[in-house]
Amino acid sequence: MIDACFENSFSRAKVKVIVDSPLSTWTKNPNLAKSLSAKMRKTVKGTVVKSTGSWYQVVSDTDGQRIDARIRGKFRLDGKRLTNPVAVGDVVELEIDSKDGTGLIMNIEERKNYVVRQSPRQKHHLHLIASNIDLALLIVTIVNPMLKQGFIDRFLILTEPRDIPVLICFNKSDLYSDEDMLIARYLCNLYESIGYDTCIVSALNKSGTDQLKKKLQKKTTLVSGQSGVGKSTLLNTIHPGLNLRTGILSDYTGKGQHTTTFAELFQLDDETRIIDTPGIKTLSYNNLEVMDVAHNFREFFQYSSNCRFSNCTHRNEPGCAVKKAIEDEEISELRYANYLAILDEIEDQNHWERHRDY
Ligand SMILES: Nc1nc2c(ncn2[C@@H]2O[C@H](COP(=O)(O)OP(=O)(O)OP(=O)(O)O)[C@@H](O)[C@H]2O)c(=O)[nH]1
Ligand SMILES: [Mg+2]
Ligand SMILES: [Zn+2]
Q1: What is the pLDDT of residues 305-351, one digit of tens each?
Q2: What does pTM read for this prediction?
Q3: Is 129-276 assigned to CATH 3.40.50.300?
Q4: Cα–Cα 20 to 30 A to 40, which of 6, 14, 93, 357?
Q5: Where in the chain are all domains bearing CATH 3.40.50.300?
Q6: Which ligand minimizes its atom distance to the CA of 235?
Q7: What is the maximal distance between C-alpha atoms in the chain?
Q8: Ligand 2 mean position to 186 CA, how many Å?
């Protein structure tokens, strides 16, 4: 659905740049020469490494040059259900303006995958977080800032539809009390039991960071999480050359100050790339239906083939295999509670609002 929407926009935005007038004609006509030279622009292929809203930075595949690029105003409007039609990680074709060296994004290569969320600012728009990734590294911490109940499960709904592997990393272990550590270990066991990788680290005293670094090698990793959990600090610890800006701990009083403001991709070596992103304040799911959530709680989905009804939402339906698995302690009650909270939120939203034709 989303891809189709891009493709329509892009095919409409493509322009013909073939110029068939003979050289002699335009050398005699300065106005024509001007307009033709504007059309005869160089085409370059590259990867989007930074997105600031209206400008994108693209690194050229051929010479590694950084190019400031824009998208044609028209297809920004066409893709109105997205706040950003081009994502960090996208491979794009640019037309280079011979005068100022800036680029115009003409085409986006088909994405291997992408992570998209409801836009934090415009609730009827989607926001692309990144594309073409091998791993999503979700950084959380038990304290400073406190882990919000359900946050991990909400994040996993973003990666599950595209089968993107997730590594859930508990940072700031140096600040954990014995009880905090028990909670972190409990959560690690829970998520590992359903197939997600986990780790407990401290960016400050570097415990566990070497193992984490190994897990990121030869991959493109999206780094995500609430603001202040230490995403940028952890990346600086793993790769000191990065020098990412980090926040001051006392700023993180729950008010959600963001130190990193734009998603940015960093090439660490030939095969290793990481994408640092701004902190997530809240994850809402205005854009989802109840069954989307049911399908993306992976262990629920596995059991659901044994539910009596194929469209079972695992609430009050008779013969529900998911509820039976919870009773048998094969599915976590915590995951189930978080699932019900998301369903309630979705159903509380005005049905008509969600089905408006934009
Ligand atoms: N004690 C302790 N503090 C840490 C650790 N990692 C990061 N911090 C501190 O947490 C604060 C926030 O770190 P950042 O790296 O800016 O957090 P971020 O997740 O990138 O935040 P945003 O860019 O706003 O999303 C800084 O003061 C860091 O020094 C850690 O392992 N232990
Ligand atoms: Mg940051
Ligand atoms: Zn069921």
Answers
A1: 999 999 999 999 999 999 999 999 999 999 999 999 999 988 887 66
A2: 0.86
A3: yes
A4: 6
A5: 129-276
A6: 1
A7: 85
A8: 27
Task: Give me the CATH code for the 290-354 domain, please.
Answer: 1.10.40.50
Which residues make up the environment of ion ligand 2, defined by Cβ < 5 Å?
Answer: 231-232, 259-260
> What is the dotted CATH code of the domain comprising 2-108?
2.40.50.140
What is the C-alpha to C-alpha distance for residues 133 and 165, in angstroms, rounded to an integer?
9
In whole angstroms, what is the distance from residue 90 CA to residue 131 CA? 6
List the structure tokens of 102.
């800036």
C-alpha distances out from residue 315 to 135, 232, 304, 320, 328, Å = 32, 40, 12, 8, 16
Q: At what angle do helices 151-159 and 333-348 cross, to 10 degrees?
A: 80
Domain with CATH 2.40.50.140 in the chain: 2-108
**Which backbone phi and psi does 259 adopt, to 5 degrees?**
-85, -45
CB-defined site of ligand 1, < 6 Å = 171-172, 174-175, 202-204, 225, 227-233, 246-249, 258-260, 278-279
Q: By alpha-carbon position, which residue is closest to atom 13 of ligand 1?
A: 230
The span from the CA of 168 to the CA of 165, in Å, is 10
